[in-house]
Design goal:
This protein has helices at 7-13, 18-30, 37-43, 83-89; strands at residues 55-63, 69-73, 97-103. Strand 1 and strand 2 form a beta hairpin. With 119 residues, it is α+β, with helices and mostly antiparallel strands. Strands 2-1-3 form a three-stranded antiparallel beta sheet, with helices on one face. The chain is elongated, with a radius of gyration of 18 Å.
Length: 119
């Protein structure tokens, strides 16, 4: 399942513009080096597990008409695998719900690959 936040949000969070990424990838490609988005992440110490976001979107949270708070998780047996399906199924008003996030265990929420300790 593709959990996460749109790909470039994490890169922008670490001050990389879409154009900067495209330029880097083109330069690497032109000299014959690996130039994919994973390669960019690796070269810049960014976590590829969470696309440098530090977290994953795992569901939605809202209050119903009575004020009762509810949460639905993505990809469970009871719920679908996309936010748009959750919003449609639960008839959520766009202003009354928010994402539920889970911290990336690979980078512990930093969006960067942990520095090697040399052990």
């Amino acid at each position: 399942m593709n959990r996460g936040i749109p790909g470039f949000w994490g890169l922008q969070k670490h001050s990389y513009s879409i154009q900067a990424v495209k330029d880097w990838r083109e330069r690497e490609f032109n000299v014959g080096r690996p130039s994919g988005l994973e390669d960019f992440s690796k070269a810049h110490g960014l976590c590829s597990a969470c696309r440098a976001n530090g977290n994953f979107i795992v569901g939605v949270h809202w209050a119903d008409e009575s004020g009762v708070e509810k949460t639905a998780s993505l990809g469970t047996d009871e719920e679908p695998a996309s936010i748009s399906e959750l919003v449609q199924i639960h008839n959520l008003n766009a202003f009354r719900w928010d994402y539920v996030y889970e911290t990336c265990t690979a980078c512990h929420g930093t969006g960067k690959v942990p520095a090697e300790t040399g052990h």
